[in-house]
Amino acid sequence: MCSLADLNPRSTARGGLVAPPRCRKQPGKPERSRFQCSYCEYRSEYKCYVVAHERIHTGERPYKCPLCSKAFTFKHHVTTHLRCHTGEKPFRCSMCPRSFAQKSNLNQHLLIHRNNVR
Fold it and tell me: In this protein, which residues make up the domain named C2H2-type (predicted)?
């Protein structure tokens, strides 16, 4: 299976994946979505994206945490989950001493600072 789906699986509203920058559709090029999900209308130019997307329908969780029994749909989610075991918080706020295990939590936190500036 193509490893691109493991490198950058960010969920979209459709439940699909966002392509890494080097794979995104170029403006002016026709879209070639030749691979389709067996369960819904989701289509992609890349078979590995459809295979990864289909896990949403099948419930398959092939990526396991080596420290506990938890299993995940995407390899990226194991990496994020491992931080709860290690306590690693690589995303630091530049405006206060807080740090976070996930970038999305830092981004949400930064809204507090933005709202306090006004």
Answer: 35-62, 63-90, 91-118
Tell me the three state secondary structure of residue 17: strand
Between CA 54 and CA 108 the distance in angstroms is 30
Q: Which tens digit of pLDDT belongs to each residue from 10-48?
A: 444 344 455 555 455 556 655 678 999 999 999 999 999
Taking the model in full, what pTM does it have? 0.60
Alpha-carbon torsion angle 24, 27, 32, 37, nearest 10:
50
3-state secondary structure of 36: strand
pLDDT digits (tens, 9 = 90+) for 53-63: 999 999 999 99
